[in-house]
């Protein structure tokens, strides 16, 4: 029997056996977490995720009771929980939280995978030990169903079976939509624990496709169990990931190719290379992240080009963290941008809109980085049998939206996400937007060239929330349109702030795209500042290495200046 400590499975946290111990641990972790906040880098790193997961588990433990520890005199009940789709009668994995109605405390299901806030991932049929008392059972599947609440009195009952049906509020598969997580690593799990986690958690969350990715950092990588799985899969022709895929969720490989000047500080950046034929080496660049190994003399762009030549998809990580995002975007080498994959310490304006206002076509994507700690996923439409290559092609085409709880539908005069509407004169366009979710997201917003120009508030509707807009918009200039929920929307069951945002629908006027020269000038200035930092911090074996790195940035500046000159001319 093994216990999953939140999603990081911290052995030190697992050893807490009493409430007093849990509360003491919580206090210690709060202090550590606060100190880490003061020194943390912008990156959503493994270091920070580990601390965050430990803190989350300590909070959950302090608020929960363990039926085997709290009252040794009270007998337990073996409760078998069946989860079923109300529409089809088919079994579903899901998320379950059980509360003792006498004490008001959640029950700790010590043999199950703890997610957040005393929610546990359960298979469609699972037997758990609970105290013989009055219980409240809350359950849902992914972001697709209503929250089902059931009360069961098991006083004096040694065994019981509870069948719970889950009513969908939205069925993405029926709409031809397929979900993916484009950024996932696992650490501090045994091989068996990792396999159990990957078989169950994506199923409970309703994830169709997960890219499990390799990365390196010395000496921490000894705990990166996902590296072992990806390496074994690549060496064995994909067999390891294929075996995991037999349980319903498709798994594919990836690599987080990256550079840091220090172990957790900024550098050239991080980029996901997905559906690889082979690992791109070095996986991690620089003596800062590799504890003295190598130099800073390799730009990310070299690995990006190699991966693209092998047919891989390239997605920039962690919003716009790092120096090489703009140069590689201007070179046309990035297929998409991951938003909020491990960190929400940014805004759409900072991480995305500036590139769209250069006239670039850049789709949204997302993942969860270390463990599946949230419901974050990207949806794309897909017909026929799912494969990583087909799914990534749809993502590259821009037909995507990201969410961790709210479903979106969006069209403009019959055009969908990723499409370009070509106009020759000012025109009226019909905008249609829809949002649905289990939790109140407050409203939906139409964004035009980075500005919110229309809002519709959400309303409660049959066990969920809904917002719909339909109106005519006059357009007289090139630009882009997208649908989102507000950045200060509510929270989901894991306590995470809700987000949802479509990739854009683009508008060209007489063949011209939007281009804001002030944004281009700002980005050129930022690259110049980055070049200065690289010269100051970089360790190079010779001037050829320095030139290889700096050339990437100079070409990015040249591309921006060429666009500025073309507009000014």
Structural class: alpha/beta
> What would CATH call the class of the largest domain?
Alpha Beta
The CATH H-level homologous superfamily of the largest domain: Metal-dependent hydrolases
Pick out the low-confidence regions: 1-44
Q: Under CATH, the topology of the largest domain is which? A: TIM Barrel
| Helix amount | 25-40%
Strand content: 25-35%
Head-to-tail CA distance between termini: 71 Å
Report on this model:
The chain is an alpha/beta fold. It folds into five domains: 1-62; 66-168, Immunoglobulin-like, CATH 2.60.40; 172-404, Alpha-Beta Barrel (TIM Barrel), CATH 3.20.20; 405-514, Immunoglobulins (Immunoglobulin-like, Sandwich); 517-568. It is built from twelve helices and 31 strands. The strands form six sheets. Strands 11, 12, 13, 14, 15, 16, 17, 18, 19, 20, 21 and 30 form a twelve-stranded mixed β-sheet that branches. A hairpin with a 2-residue loop joins strand 27 (459-461) and strand 28. It is globular. Mean pLDDT is 90; it is low at 1-44.
Defining key terms:
569 residues; alpha/beta; 31 strands; 12-stranded mixed beta sheet; TIM Barrel; Immunoglobulin-like; 5-stranded antiparallel beta sheet; 27% helix
Task: Summarize the entry for a quick read.
The protein is of the alpha/beta class and 569 residues long. The protein starts with 10 loop residues before the first helix and ends with a helix.
């Amino acid at each position: 029997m093994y216990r999953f400590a939140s999603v990081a499975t911290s052995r030190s946290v697992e050893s807490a056996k009493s409430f007093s111990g849990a509360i003491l641990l919580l206090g210690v972790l709060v202090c550590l977490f606060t100190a880490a906040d003061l020194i943390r880098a912008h990156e959503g790193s493994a270091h920070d995720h580990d601390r965050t997961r430990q803190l989350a588990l300590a909070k959950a433990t302090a608020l929960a009771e363990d039926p085997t520890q709290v009252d040794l005199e009270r007998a337990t009940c073996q409760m078998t929980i069946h989860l079923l789709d109300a529409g089809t009668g088919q079994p579903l994995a899901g998320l379950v939280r059980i509360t003792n109605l006498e004490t008001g405390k959640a029950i700790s299901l010590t043999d199950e995978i703890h997610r957040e806030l005393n929610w546990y991932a359960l298979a469609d049929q699972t037997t758990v030990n609970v105290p013989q008392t009055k219980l409240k059972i809350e359950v849902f599947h992914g972001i697709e169903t209503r929250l089902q609440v059931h009360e069961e009195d098991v006083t004096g009952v040694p065994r019981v079976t509870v069948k719970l049906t889950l009513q969908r509020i939205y069925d993405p598969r029926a709409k031809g939509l397929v979900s993916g997580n484009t950024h996932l690593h696992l650490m501090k799990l045994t091989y068996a624990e990792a396999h159990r986690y990957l078989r169950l958690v994506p199923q409970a969350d309703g994830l169709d496709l997960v890219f499990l990715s390799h990365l390196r950092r010395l000496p921490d990588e000894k705990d990166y169990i996902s590296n072992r799985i990806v390496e074994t899969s690549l060496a064995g022709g994909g067999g390891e990931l294929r075996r995991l895929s037999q349980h319903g969720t498709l798994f594919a490989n990836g690599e987080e190719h990256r550079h840091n000047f220090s172990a957790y500080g900024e550098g050239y950046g991080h980029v996901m290379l997905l559906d690889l034929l082979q690992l791109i080496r070095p996986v991690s660049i620089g003596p800062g992240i590799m504890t003295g190994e190598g130099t800073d003399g390799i730009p990310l762009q070299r690995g990006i080009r190699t991966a693209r030549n092998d047919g891989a998809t390239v997605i920039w990580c962690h919003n716009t963290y790092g120096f090489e995002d703009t140069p590689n975007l201007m070179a046309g080498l990035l297929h998409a941008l991951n938003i909020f994959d491990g960190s929400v310490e940014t805004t759409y304006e900072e991480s995305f809109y500036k590139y769209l206002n250069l006239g670039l076509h850049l789709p949204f994507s997302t993942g969860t980085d270390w463990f599946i700690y949230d419901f974050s996923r990207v949806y794309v439409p897909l017909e026929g049998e799912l494969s990583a290559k087909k799914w990534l092609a749809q993502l590259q085409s821009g037909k995507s939206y990201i969410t961790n709880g709210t479903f979106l539908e969006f069209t403009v005069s019959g055009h969908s996400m990723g499409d370009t509407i070509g106009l020759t004169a000012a025109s009226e366009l019909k905008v249609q937007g829809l949002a649905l979710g289990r939790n109140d997201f407050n409203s939906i917003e139409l964004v035009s060239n980075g500005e919110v120009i229309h809002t519709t508030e959400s309303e409660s509707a049959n066990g969920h929330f809904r917002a719909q807009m339909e109106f005519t918009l006059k357009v007289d200039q090139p630009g882009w349109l997208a649908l989102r929920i507000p950045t200060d929307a509510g929270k989901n069951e894991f306590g995470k702030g809700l987000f949802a945002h479509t990739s854009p629908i683009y508008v060209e006027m007489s063949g011209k795209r939007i281009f804001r020269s002030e944004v281009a000038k700002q980005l050129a200035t930022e690259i110049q500042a980055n070049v200065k930092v690289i010269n100051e911090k970089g360790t190079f074996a010779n001037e050829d290495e320095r030139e290889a790195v700096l050339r990437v940035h100079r070409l990015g500046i040249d591309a921006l200046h060429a666009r500025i000159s073309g507009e000014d001319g």
